[in-house]
Amino acid sequence: MNDFRYVKNGESLSIRAEDCVGCGDCLEVCPHGALELRAGKAGIRDRGLCMECGACARNCPANAISVTAGVGCAAAIIKGKLTGTAPSCDCGSGSACC
Amino acid sequence: MMLTQVRKEPKVPLVGYTKFTEPPPRYVEGYRQIAGRSVPVVATRLSGRDRLGDWAVRWDIRRNDYAVAPGLYAVGEPDPSSPLLVTANYKLTFDALRSELGGIDAWIAVLDTKGVNVWCAAGKGSFGSAELLDKIARLRLAEIVSHNLLILPQLGAPGVSAPEIARVSRFRVVWGPVRAADLPAFLAAGMRKIDAMRRVEFRLADRMAVAPVELAHAWPFGLGAIALSLAGALPLGDGFAHRAAWLAAATVGAILCGSLAFPALLPLLPSKAFSIKGAVLGTLWGLACAIGGGFSPGMAIAITLASASVVSFIALNFTGSSTYTCQGGANLEVEKSILPTIFSLALGLGLGGASRVFGF
Question: Is B326 within 8 Å of A88 when comparing Cβ atoms?
Fold first, then answer.
C-alpha cells in the first residue's frame, strides 16, 4: 500500500538509458518503488511516487541517474528563506522534523 | 579464533572501539574480546529506562541529546563469520535495532551521525560514505570479520554510495530492510529482501508516532490561544463563560486539529498539498465551533479564517515528519501558502476583534 503522492514529486528524476548497465541497484534502494527494470534497463515506473531522496542516483555505478535531492520539509525551507541559507534538515529544538 | 566474553569491563583497551564516558551505559551487558581488544555486548531487551527515554524523546524531551557512543558493539556471541550491521548513533534508532536482534549473533558498527536517525542523517550526509569509510578504518572492521559484507539500513542509501565503498575499501554494502523489525527474516533468508522490506510506509501508527513532537512544540501557542479566547469573550458577565469556552475550543482545538487530527486523517483529506489539506480541515473545525457556539456571523467568519490558517500552517510543517514529500513541492507550498496563511490569520483576528467591539 502506498497511496501517498505529493506536489511536484519526481519532477527532477531522469535516467539516461544509454548509460544504464541494468544492475538494478536503484530499484534496491528506492523506498517507494518508483523505478523498474524494463528490458534490462532501469526506467521510471511511477514518477509520482518519487520523493527525490537521491538514493538511486548516489548508488548508480554508471552515474546514469540524476535527481535533485533535497529536504521535503517546509520548516527547513522557511528557515532557509529567513536566514538566506540553503534549506537544511538541521532540526534544532525549535523545529519538528525527522 | 578463540573468543571469550567477560562480564566486567576488561583491562584490554577499548581504544579504536567504543569510547564511553564513565560509567558505561546500562545496556552494556559484557565485553567480547576479539583481535586483542574488547567490544561491548549490548542487551537485546530494552529496559524500563530505555523505554521511558524512547517515549520521552518522541515528545521532544532530550531529543537533541539522545545519542549512543559511536563505535563497535556486539549482540549475542558473534564470531568473525557473523553479520556486521551498520547503524546511526541516535539512541532511538540503536534501541529499535538491538531490540529486534534477540537470539542473533551480530556485530554492530555505530556511525557518528550526531544523534540523528539513519534517514535524516543520510539526507544530510552524516550517515554517508566518508563517515562509513572512516569507521571501517578506525574500528578496523577488517580485523573483526572474515567476510566483506556490511549490512546497512536501506534508508542510508541517500548518503552512502555503495559503489564508492566497494571501490575504496574491501567491503561491499548489502542494503538491508528499511525497518529493523524485518532484520531477523532478512538474515534468516540469506540476506534477501521481499518488496515489502524495501518500502517506506506512512501508516496511521507511523503518523501518530511522529505527532507528539508537533504537539510538544505547540503548547506555547496553546497558552496564547487560551489568552486570546478569554480576551475575545469579554466583557465579563452574561455569556462570558460560554463565549470563552467556545473560542477556546476553536483556537486550542485548531492546534490539536493540526497536531493530531491532521496526521490521523492525512490520506482522507483532499489535495496533495499539506497546506490545502490543513486549510480544509481547519475550515471544517472553525465552522463547527462557530455554529456550535452560536456566534454572530462576523465572529463565525473570524473563527473560521483563523482556524483554517492555524491548521494549514501546522499541517505544512508536518511535511518534515512525512516520508514522501520532496523539496520542490515543499518549496512551492511555502511560497504559495505563507502569505495567504498570514493574511487569513490577520483578517480573522481583526474581524474577531471588530465583531466584539461593534457587535456584528
Answer: no
**How does DSSP classify residue B236?**
S
Give pairs for B178-183: CB < 8 Å, separation 24+: B178/A31, B178/B153, B178/B154, B180/B96, B180/B97, B180/B99, B180/B100, B180/B153, B181/B100, B183/B85, B183/B97, B183/B100, B183/B101, B183/B104
**Interface with A, mutate which of B154, B203, B325 (most A CBs under 10 A):** B325
Total residue length of chain A = 98
φ, ψ at B86 (rounded to 5°)? -120, 135
Query: Which of B181, B13, B147, B175 shows the shortest CA–CA distance to B79?
Result: B147
Is the pTM value of this prediction over 0.95? no
- For residue B104, the domain's CATH number is 3.40.50.11600
Residue B185 and residue B288 in one domain: no
Residue with cell 524523546: B57
Over residues B13-46, the pLDDT tens digits come to: 454 456 776 678 899 999 998 888 889 999 999 9
Domain count, chain A: 1
pLDDT, tens digit (0-9, with 9 covering 90-100), for B316-356? 999 999 999 999 999 999 999 999 999 999 999 999 999 98
The CA distance from B134 to B148, in Å, is: 16
Instruction: Indicate whether A27 belongs to any domain.
Output: yes
| Residues forming beta bridges with residue B30, ordered by sequence position | B41
Q: Which residues are within 8 A (CB) of B51 and not within 5 positions of it... i.e. 6 or more apart?
A: none
Chain B interface includes A66 (CB < 8 A)? no
Length of chain B: 360
The answer to whether position A92 is within a domain reads: no
C-alpha dihedral (B90, B95, B100, B102), degrees to nearest 10: 130
| Domain final position from B173, B198, B223 | B198
Identify all chain A residues contacting B317, using CB atoms and an 8 Å cutoff: 74-75, 95-96
| CA distances (Å), origin B354, targets A45, B207, B242, B299 | 55, 39, 19, 9
User: What is the number of domains present in chain B?
Assistant: 2
Kindly state whether residues B157 and B293 are assigned to the same domain. Answer: no
* Same-domain pairing of B284 and B338: yes
**Phi, psi values for residue B72, rounded to 5°:** -105, 135
Above 70 in pLDDT, residue B229?
yes
Q: Do B325 and A12 lie within an 8 Å CB cutoff? A: no
